[in-house]
Amino acid sequence: MRVPTKQLRRGARVLGSAMLMLGPAAAPAVADASPTASPSDGRSAPTSAGTSFRTATEIDQGQQATASGSAGDYLYWSFPADAGQRATVKATVKLPDTHASETWQLDVYDGLRRRQACQYGAQTRTAAAGTASVELTCTLRTVRAWSEQWANDPLPGTYYVRLTAVNLPTSDLGLPVDAELRVDSRDIGGSAAVDGSLAEPLVPGIAVRSEDTEDSSTASAVLSSIEPDDGWSSGWWSDRWVWTALGGALAALAGVGGYALTRGAGRPRQVSPGA
């Protein structure tokens, strides 16, 4: 059957309208692919590190934290990560002029203190004797809004960073070192969205802490002293919603366009209805 030129043009207009809709809808996906970092809200960057999980120094994403210590010490920091974020932790250790070969390691733990695997990056590196510094990187898996209890998936909440030297020679124990740490993240968007969410993020102090007010002493959950700018689990909206709506619109347009292309020109005027 030969398709009339008029109907081909009509189908082309339908497809053109669909492409025009695709452009604005794709914008959220492009925005999600860009790196993001939470501003420090005027807080100065920390200049010390903790020595355990309980005393870990809190830092915001996008802050350049520094600390001085000794070779053999454990240095701890903590930072918040919300659903849909893929965090990258970068550490630089400045070594003294004279030292033996040293191996440094960067470990990241979630709010349940489960060690999280690095998706990529060099989290363990050996600095040869006399090397001025060593750089370590760990990019975590994308934080999920919800997971099965048996799984080891990264979940929203506080993450702990531990930096230390492993198998350190006795001659290097106690040598002064300086460390720099920075955490940035990338919003992955709807491709990492799941159906479900945690009741509360995995952060220290989620149990009950007393609060003294003017009226009385009450108990409330104190989640963390730092959190994402727009609150925890703020990423419930993602480009997944946009693509779902767009898919439905394109399916409807395809149906209309297909009907317009295949319905024909109708009954000729000179042909009677009973023919």
Structure, described:
By secondary structure, the chain is of the alpha+beta class. The protein has 2 helices and 13 strands; from the N terminus they run H-E-E-E-E-E-E-E-E-E-E-E-E-E-H. It has helices at about 5-30, 240-260, and strands at about 35, 55-60, 65-70, 75-80, 85-95, 100-110, 120, 125, 135-140, 155-165, 175-185, 210, 215-220. The strands form 3 sheets. Strands 1, 3, 5, 7, 9 and 11 form a 6-stranded antiparallel sheet that branches. Strands 2-4-10-6-8 form a 5-stranded mixed sheet, with no helix packed on it. It is elongated and about 105 Å long.
Describe the largest sheet.
6 strands, antiparallel
DSSP, total strands: 13
- What proportion of the residues form beta strands (DSSP E)? 25-35%
Tally of helical segments? 2
Terminal-residue CA separation: 21 Å
Helix-strand makeup class? alpha+beta
From the spread of the alpha carbons, the general shape counts as: elongated
Pattern of helices and strands = HEEEEEEEEEEEEEH
Whole-number mean pLDDT: 78
Uncertain spans: 24-35, 208-213
What value does the Rg take, in angstroms? 28 Å
Residue share in helix: 10-25%
